[in-house]
Design goal:
Elements: H1 7-25, H2 30-38, E1 40-43, E2 48-51, H3 52-77, H4 84-108, H5 126-136, H6 142-166, H7 173-193, H8 196-202, H9 208-232, H10 237-246, H11 249-275, H12 290-315, H13 330-340, H14 344-354, H15 359-404
Antiparallel strand pairs: 1-2
Helix pairs in contact: 1-5, 1-11, 3-6, 3-10, 3-11, 4-6, 4-12, 5-6, 5-15, 6-13, 7-9, 7-10, 9-10, 11-14, 12-13, 12-15, 13-15, 14-15
Length: 405
């Protein structure tokens, strides 16, 4: 499974799964696949009755959000966001990359019934963006990848908050209390698993058997927490976020490392395939809803404009006090803005949530996310390749100058 730790391989698999889902949905096999995706699998004793698609988006996708939360915690504590001076510029760029796409979407849907779709074009698929960067930007300096990673992590944080606050149905406080208790217990168990606390309690390092027992209890608590979160009305993926944020750093990093290949090889491709199972509407271009055009335009154009302008303004205001070597040029900001328009995973999830009761519009939204992300992939590949070649020429010229001197 180590092959799926590669950002390039995981991005390619994700794209292939989405393309396969969209293609198959529009063949003779499409009706059967759509029926299977909508088929319900229930556990009445737990109060669960979800379609196959929702078991994937509400259940399996929790693993992806858990990994995101562990990475977010690391970046905030010890990584590229562990101080205000490091976080301020990516934060300003990320804010621009949320506000401008949302504004474009709202402008194109002004006065219409689909204003609730504004969160769809605000997301960036961190895995896909880093995959494109890895494929086409091998000569880029480390500061570009660090800036993109920080921006995408903050973008994910905004997406998590949007899901939690804007897509919460009627709140069941008792179930929410159960979920919070589960998160607290999970965090305490992870501290025991980290070894130091348990070592002090036992007077010796925890044995392998004891660690296995603790892990089993943590898995059980995680499942119960997910169930309580689902029952509470808060989107179930938030359970993965909460569990990842409270988990002790060392076992959290180990868990994320172990789960990442499965997330890249199974969870995300399954979600992309399931979400892309959409029959292309047999309507004329003029009959497509404003929601379709809002997402299609706001995702590639809004992200590029928002990240570039906000990053440029930030660099010329608060960025003056930052280390000059860490600042990105305007050309680099345009490149990062192009990468930011690759919405994919989280945008597809937000589309499902925003248009849950309007299937026709949800289908158009899915196609718009795929097309908008596709445009961004092509644009980003061109921009990244151009900047990579420019940096390579600079290095060659620098070596030549050094040899002459």
């Amino acid at each position: 499974m180590s092959i799926f730790r590669s950002e390039r391989n995981s991005a390619g698999l994700l794209l292939a799964a989405a393309a396969l889902g969209l293609i198959l949905a529009n063949t003779k096999a499409g009706a059967g696949l759509l029926e299977a995706n909508d088929a319900h699998i229930g556990f009445p004793t737990l109060g669960l009755d979800l379609s196959t698609g929702h078991w994937i988006s509400d259940g399996l996708l929790v693993i992806f959000f858990f990994i995101v939360a562990v990475e977010l915690k690391y970046e905030l504590v010890a990584g590229s966001l562990n101080s205000p001076t490091k976080a301020i510029l990516p934060a300003i760029a990320a804010l621009g990359g949320v506000v401008v796409p949302a504004g474009i979407y709202l402008l194109l849907n002004a006065g219409g019934p689909y204003l609730g779709g504004w969160p769809i074009p605000t997301a960036t698929d961190i895995a896909f963006a880093l995959g494109v960067l890895a494929i086409f930007g091998r000569a880029l300096p480390t500061k570009v990848r660090v800036f993109l990673l920080a921006l995408a992590v903050l973008d994910d944080l905004v997406a998590i908050l949007i899901i939690a606050f804007f897509f919460t149905t009627s709140l069941n406080l008792l179930a929410l209390g159960g979920a919070i208790l589960g998160v607290v217990v999970f965090g305490a168990l992870s501290q025991l698993l980290s070894g130091r606390l348990l070592g002090r309690m036992l007077g010796t390092a925890p044995t392998g058997a004891l660690k296995v027992i603790l892990c089993a209890f943590m898995v059980l608590v995680a499942i119960l927490t997910w169930d309580f979160m689902y029952q509470s009305g808060v989107h179930a993926t938030i359970a993965g976020v909460a569990l990842g944020l409270v988990m002790a750093r060392k076992p959290g990093a180990s868990a994320a490392h172990a789960l990442q290949p499965w997330s890249n090889a199974v969870v995300l491709p399954l979600f992309a395939f399931s979400a892309a199972l959409v029959a292309i509407p047999s309507v004329g271009i003029a009959e497509l809803s404003p929601a379709f055009w809002g997402v299609l335009v706001a995702l590639p154009v809004g992200k590029l404009l928002g990240i570039t302008l906000a990053g440029w303004i930030g660099a010329r205001t608060v960025g003056r006090s930052s280390d000059a070597s860490s600042l990105l040029s305007l050309k680099d900001l345009v490149m990062v803005g192009g990468l930011g328009g690759i919405g994919f995973t989280v945008s597809l999830l937000m589309n499902e949530l925003a248009f849950a009761g309007v299937h026709e519009v949800a289908d158009e939204g899915t196609i718009a996310v795929l097309l908008g992300s596709g445009v961004s992939i092509v644009a980003a590949a061109i921009l990244v390749s151009m900047r990579s070649r420019a940096y390579k020429r600079e290095r060659v010229a620098g070596r030549t100058t050094a040899l002459v001197e």
